[in-house]
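Page 47, continued from p. 46.
Same chain as before, 478 aa.
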Amino acid sequence: MQRLLAEVRKKTLEKRYRDDNGLEFGRFKLVVKVKGAAAGALSVPKTFIGKEASLTRDFMFPWKVKKGDLLVLDPKESAKILRKRGPRVDLECTRAGVVEKRSGDVDSDGYAEDILANCFVSAVYQPHRGARLLSLRGCAGEDRFAQPLDYIMAGKYILLGGAEELIVEGGSPGEIWKSEFERTEPEPATGSAELRFSRSLKSPEGVTISKEVELESDLPGVVGRYVISYAGETERKDAKKDGDEASGDGSAGKAGDKKEKDETDVTFVVRMSTRADGHPASLSVFDVPGGRGLTKVRYHRPGYGRRWRWRDWRDEHFGLKPGFVISRHEREGRVLAILFGTRRGCHLSIRSDYQGPELQLRHAPRKIPKGGRARYGVAFLVGSDVAANDTTMFLASKGRAGRGGIPVALTVRTSRKGDPFRVSIRTAQGRRSVTLSARDLAGAGRVHTKTINIPRGSFPIECTTTVGGERLSVRVEA
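Result:
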C-alpha cells in the first residue's frame, strides 16, 4: 500500500445529499492523474507516474473539488491504481523436499516481491525496500512479523513491518530500509533457493552492503548473510593542512606529513517488529538467554493510551551470548527464533512501539579499513513449540502435510559442547529415537537439526533431548 498524489482532470457530480446532521454533501466521480508519491509517503514506481484512474469522493458544500486540484489518495484508492492485475500470488508452503522461488506483488505497492518457500515456511523479501524480510509465514499461514504499513502524524512518519537492516553511522539509517537494492540472479542449486541483493551507500561514503538469503528444503527458516565492504573515500583532505597553507606561515609541510588512516565506522543493526496474533502487541513473549538465566519479557497491551496502567509494558536491554532470541505467542505457539553469530558481541533492545514490540539486534561497532569488509549472519526460524534455558534452545517446527505424513523439523541451538544430540520421540503409536546432525548457518552460528515424517494418526508427539544434564521437551499437535 502507498499514498499517491494525484491531479483532478475531470469531475462529474453524481448526486447531492444531506447527512444525519443536516450537512449538505456532493458525491463526485473524478478522473485523476498520478503526479507521484504524497508528502512523507514511500516512493512510487516510475511506470505509474502520469497514469489516469477513476474514483468517487464525497465533498461537503460549499467546498467542492475543481479541475487542477491536487488530492492525496488514501491507501485503498492508491492500491487500486498500483495493483497490477494478474494471477494470484502464491504464498503457500510447498510439499516436503521441495523449495521454490517465486515473484509477485503481494502487498499492492506496484513493486514485485521475491518469495522463497519450502514445506515449513514462506518468506517474502522486498528488493525496493532495503531487501527487507517483509513476511515469514509458517505452514499454517500465520505471519511471524507485524505488517503495519501505517501512516501517522499527518503522513510524516511511516511504519513498515518485517525485519530490516541498518548501519547507524554517517547519517544512513534511513538510506537502507527505504531504498531499492540491485538484485542479481545466482546459479540455481539443488535442494535450496537463494536471493542476492546489493547497494552502494552515499553515507557512509564508499560503503557497499551485500545480502545473500538462502532457504533449504529441510530447514524451517531463512538464513541471511551480510557483507559490508569499504572502498575508501573518493577524496580525503587534511583540514589542518588546508588551514596552514592558507595562513602562509610556512608550516604547511609539517602539517601534511601525517596521513590520516582511511577507515570507516560501522555498527550493523537488524530491526524487526514481531507479532503473536491479529494484534501485534497481544500476548507476545520474548525469551532472552543471559548470565542471570532465561529472562521472559511479556507484552499484553497495545502501545497507546494510558501506559502507566500497563506495567508489563517496558523497554528492555540485554547483552547476548548464546546466540538466540525467541519471540512467541504465550498460549498458542507461533514461535519465531532469531539466531546470530556469537564471535562478536551483540546487544538486544526491546521497546514498546506504536504497533507493538520492536526488537533491535545491534552488533558491536567495528572499524573497516579501506579495501576491508565485515561479515554478519542472521537466521529466522519458525516453530510450533519451543523449550529453552540460558544456554540452549530446542525448537520443533511442523510442516505441510503430504502423502508420507507430516514433516517435523527438530532444531537445537546451544552454547554447550556436545555432539551428537539425541532426541526421544513419543507418539500415539510408540516411541522412537533420532540423532541430530550439525549444520553451520554461515555467520548465524551452528545448529543441530533433523527432519522426520510423522504419520497423521501419531499426533500429538512429545520430543525430549538432554543438553548439559538438563532435559528439554516440546510438544507438537496434529
